[in-house]
């Protein structure tokens, strides 16, 4: 089977590609080819079998979707996106990448001779405005950002294309995924990774929010696990709505730093300096932080055991080790 991953040079796409290239199988079928697509050419992971085709291109280009998903395509993991702050800054780019390209990919899948799988990376950013203290599977989505709106519309499209039988799709609303390797990005949530990553790599870091600030989190390893699970789920298991909020952990900054101390000692924690930033604090105040996800759990989606393990995984898999 041929699988396409968009956003394959990104944080999660790279890990998903590595996992599929290593496993060689999904849902009992052999993966013969992986097409890894991104605006920057993705690195080819070590493969235990599948042919790896890396493609650099702009997902908003006319005709690209149809060229990516050839007739042999068994399905798509659609991860390419302009993330929250980027889509807020550039409305047209956000709409083109996060909404219109999703529709083009869905159309390309619809044209295939077989019914392909389609796993769409959505976000809890679809929730916003007046929210209950604890959000659950019944909470209405009233996004307060363009990014959140684009993800909610994307979910509706995936649901409708699935209902029509054009494809077998689903949308997973991801918590904030930590610990992102590399440099801080433009996201208002970037501190959640920075306050762990930078101190572990020996650098001082500024935390712009209060210690009681909570965040709904997952590790990239669990997200990859859940994406594969979603692909493998029979269509009937979803019922009428193949969209779900994935389970996650809710932790305050204080709890995150306590975990950092348990895993790596006091020294890295001392590198975190608190310099409040009213703008970032206001954005974070508007985010949903506490979720109950009984539907995802009853369907067998996983969550991390604890934050200590998330930090250990980062140290083992992604940390830049300064000599
Ligand atoms: N990481 C998180 O905390 C988080 C949380 C919720 C949802 N998500 C969603 O999960 C998915 C993956 O997230 P991530 O953290 O890996 O993001 P990322 O930014 O690391 O990866 C996204 C990739 O999309 C690519 N891309 C952007 N514009 C493109 C274009 N025009 N053409 C082709 N490729 C383009 C980027 O180059 C990037 O490599 C995204 O859809 C994101 O919205 C992520």
Task: Reconstruct the topology from this structure.
Layout: E1 2-6, H1 11-23, E2 25-26, E3 29-30, E4 33-38, E5 51-56, H2 64-68, E6 73-78, H3 84-89, H4 91-110, E7 117-123, H5 146-163, E8 168-174, E9 176-177, H6 190-200, E10 205-207, E11 214-218, H7 220-232, H8 235-238, E12 243-245, E13 249-252, H9 253-264, H10 266-270, E14 272-274, H11 278-285, H12 294-298, H13 307-317
Parallel strand pairs: 1-4, 1-6, 4-5, 6-7, 7-8, 8-12, 9-11, 10-14
Antiparallel strand pairs: 2-3, 11-13
Helix pairs in contact: 1-7, 4-5, 6-9, 9-13
This protein binds nicotinamide-adenine-dinucleotide.
Nicotinamide-adenine-dinucleotide (NAD) binds next to helix 1, strand 7 and strand 9.
Write a compact overview of the structure shown:
By secondary structure, the protein is an alpha/beta fold.
